[in-house]
């Protein structure tokens, strides 16, 4: 038994010592360009197709949505691999809310409430417009569901908000909608 124990102790000692040494050369690191302590959104990648957040940031019609994502600390979640389907309200949709609503929601003390609203705009998986079935309810990221309506002309609405455009992203699909979806 002692003959087996000695090599095992030596092996563990070498393993512990080798794990404790780190190279100080970070130039060849596979994580170069990532700020320490930040999430997926800190990764700098100008080569790949843009993800959902990058598409929203690049759209002048979605600056209010981007500000809400930042205030709710929801940027990293939508930067991850996904796949996601996001119903993205336009600035005009946010402007149609009662006066002061957006300003109130982006306050730090309302972060959880804002995040719940944003999660209500997200489905797990990719749903193209042609995948939506009239009368079907689909579960959202916040655990609730949205109702899908497909008009005879093919127009798709989610809880009454019409899809007015669709954009592919590297981690899912974005359906631009003309209203903010408010959970009941």
From TrEMBL:
Source species, domain of life: Bacteria
Pfam hit, one: Fasciclin
InterPro entries according to UniProt: Adhesion/Biosynth-related, FAS1_dom_sf, FAS1_domain
Residue ranges annotated for the FAS1 domain, each copy included: 49-181
Keyword annotations: Signal
Signal peptide (UniProt feature, chain positions): 1-23
UniProt GO cellular component terms: extracellular space
Stored PANTHER family: FI19380P1, PERIOSTIN-RELATED
Name the record gives this protein: Putative surface protein with fasciclin (FAS1) repeats
Taxonomic path: Bacteria, Pseudomonadati, Bacteroidota, Cytophagia, Cytophagales
